[in-house]
């Protein structure tokens, strides 16, 4: 999971930047943004579910909840980094995400121990 700035995305993530402007404005742009968000949530949940099926994530973990947590952390890091010009927010998000994955993993030795 990549959490951090990208040269290809100077100025921040397009979706994070435009969603607040269009989230209450009906139309094609809002519909496209909403569809992309739903697809993103589905991808996160699918990945967590597959990891559970492979025995990599504890079975009692709710895939939708974990997906929501990981997505929320990544999004707030991107929002704050762009708005506050504070790239260390990405480091904080990576650290928190790594800690959360250690909590839910069945075998922490398979995780990347350097979340940068």
Automatic annotation (TrEMBL):
Alphabetical keyword list: Transcription, Transcription regulation
Pfam family, one: TetR_C_13
Superkingdom of this protein's organism: Bacteria
Domain Tetracyclin repressor-like C-terminal: 10-96
UniProt protein name: Tetracyclin repressor-like C-terminal domain-containing protein
């Amino acid at each position: 999971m990549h959490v951090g700035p990208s040269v290809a995305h100077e100025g921040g993530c397009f979706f994070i930047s435009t969603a607040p402007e269009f989230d209450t404005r009906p139309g094609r742009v809002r519909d496209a943004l909403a569809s992309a968000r739903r697809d993103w949530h589905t991808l996160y949940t699918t990945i967590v579910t597959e990891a559970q099926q492979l025995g990599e994530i504890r079975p009692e973990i709710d895939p939708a909840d974990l997906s929501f947590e990981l997505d929320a952390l990544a999004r707030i890091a991107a929002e704050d980094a762009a708005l506050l010009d504070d790239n260390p927010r990405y480091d904080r998000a990576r650290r928190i995400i790594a800690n959360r994955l250690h909590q839910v993993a069945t075998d922490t030795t398979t995780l990347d121990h350097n979340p940068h």
